[in-house]
Amino acid sequence: MTWHETERAWLADTLRATAYDAPTLCAGWQARHLAAHLVLRERAPRAGAGAVGTVATRGPGAATERLAATVEGPEDYAALVDTFAAPPPRWSPLAWAGDAVNASEYFIHTEDLRRGAGPAEPRALPDGLRDLLWGQLLRMAPVRLRRLGPGVVLVRPDDLRSAVHRARGGHGTVVLRGEVGELVLAVSGRLQAADVTVEGAPDDVAAVRELLTGP
């Protein structure tokens, strides 16, 4: 199996283990909204179901809200989760997007569920998935941080590091330290739920926290 297939299965299992009205890290979303987002993302992409870098701060869109509203109990929820658990139809762009688009999405949303009600132990990631997420993080971070004044350096426990944003406007550089999965969560706007240390001058740290902390 590819990593996105593995993560789809993990996410589907996590959805099934979560009550349909359980909170998530996504502002305004219960588990049923997250399931609706995932289904619409793959089967009705024009509905604008949201993307990995924005969903934590957008709240449910109209299409997601409508589909989530049809979930009135566990049976409705189970049916929606089963729809997501099956691969998307061949006509969907997400059917051929593979790891490049889906792996981080599924990983992040699994953690949205696992940590919605409070802290959860970080997952121990296989080396291959860790390396894939690291590569995707290094591409995502410069876009996510582009308007930030302080610079940002990401540092893994093995001391592998990457400067993903250059300081400007007289600001210094902030260092984020953590496991790869935790850094992915932090940069995607879930810093408040990630096991990451933030080091730097107080004003610069505050600016980074303001950008990367969801409601």
Structure description:
This protein has 215 residues and is an alpha+beta fold. It has two domains: 3-114, no CATH class; 127-212, Nonspecific Lipid-transfer Protein, Chain A (2-Layer Sandwich), CATH 3.30.1050. The protein contains nine helices and four strands. The chain has helices at 3-16, 31-43, 55-58, 62-69, 74-85, 98-114, 127-144, 180-190, 202-212, and strands at 151-155, 161-165, 173-177, 197-199. It has a four-stranded mixed sheet. A hairpin with a 5-residue loop joins strand 1 and strand 2 (161-165). Helix 2 packs across helix 4. The radius of gyration is 17 Å and the shape is globular. The protein starts with a helix and ends with a helix.
User: What is the N-to-C succession of helices and strands?
Assistant: HHHHHHHEEEHEH
Q: Calculate Rg over CA atoms.
A: 17 Å
Approximately what portion of the residues adopt beta-strand conformation?
5-15%
The low-confidence parts are 48-60
The span between the termini is 35 Å
Helix content: 40-55%
Sheet with the most strands, sense and barrel status: 4 strands, mixed
Shape: globular
What's the tally of helices? 9
Tally of extended strands?
Answer: 4
Mean of all residue-level pLDDT scores: 90
How many domains? The number is 2
Question: Strand pairing plus helix content: what structural class?
Answer: alpha+beta
Largest sheet: spatial strand order: 2-1-3-4
Labels describing this entry:
Nonspecific Lipid-transfer Protein, Chain A; 215 residues; alpha+beta; four-stranded mixed beta sheet
